[in-house]
């Protein structure tokens, strides 16, 4: 029987409760499809700081290194302990560190608005067309997030200067462009590359390299769009997009905007992939929504983003396409049958039932 080792890092806020539901669903697929998942829990984020005074405890990093993939919850509680310096806080010390450590340069964020959730989309129905279905491909280990120099200096007299640096090299742009073109080949064959080539050196290089890589994918239609226009086009005519290719920070911003079009951040999974080694790709899978501390521990969170992240893991890291599809259709089924967590609930919708995290997870696991 094929065995896969998974590091499960639930983290903070709603992380543990949505992770519990994803594991429940994974266990159901394991039974049905006959493979074995060895799932090892490890603390991260504030949970890591509480456990070992480090957002990414050594033991957690060890477990990740010995695993085939990481299933991640979420980290970061803005109001907890301001005395912990910024470099040691979970966002940088755990999340960004893991991205860098495992070379997870390709972040895939698929946004899909199911027809039955049209009411949860902030756009008027006529703008939703036949449905919104966008894949944001975000570069994840370069750009302003990691570029050096990066620091804040004292200018004296109580004044400071903060510096972040945007840096990209040709190979960094090439490898993420290939990921985006390949994804487009499997979809509607349209790629919109986002940049700021009218102002930034980075934008000019980005556009040149993406255009060159595009020559190898003649069946994919390539367009370029400035990021400000891209942000506007997303709300004016989101149906024009198939795959959007973005550098790190533009992708951070546009993927949240796109997620809102998909009904709720609570529905958006993501896959962060490193280089492929033989048939296996080490990956890091997480919901895009964050820790949502206001609703944590109340059985209110939508577990779907975490559950769909687990499906992406089965597909991209283990090649278990059937099992991944089974999870995705179980999610669709739960929604079509009228189950709604608070984020996608509307009192005006007929025949729906407002449910908590557990009931939603149980329903999805039962259909798998
Ligand atoms: C995301 C998040 C992170 C990012 C934060 C938590 C560091 O917003 O994954 O989109 O900016 O990359
Ligand atoms: Mg973000």
Q: What report would you give on this structure?
A:
With 368 residues, the protein is α/β, with parallel strands linked by helices. The chain contains twelve helices and 14 strands. A ten-stranded mixed beta sheet has the order 2-1-3-12-11-4-5-10-8-9, with helices on both faces. A hairpin with a 2-residue loop joins strand 6 and strand 7. The model has no long low-confidence stretch (mean pLDDT 96). 3-isopropylmalic acid binds next to helix 4.
Rounded to an integer in angstroms, the radius of gyration calculated over CA atoms is 20 Å
The order of strands across the largest sheet is 2-1-3-12-11-4-5-10-8-9
Helix count, DSSP H or I runs of 4 or more residues: 12
* Backbone shape: globular
Helix content: 25-40%
Strand content: 15-25%
Low-confidence stretches: none
Sketch the topology as an H/E string, one letter per element: EHEHHEHEHEEEHEHEHEHEEHHEEH
Q: Report the bound ligands by name, code or SMILES.
A: 3-isopropylmalic acid, magnesium ion
Number of strands: 14
What is the terminal-to-terminal distance? 20 Å
Pairing-aware structural class of the strands and helices? alpha/beta
The biggest beta sheet, please? Answer: 10 strands, mixed
Average of the residue pLDDT scores: 96
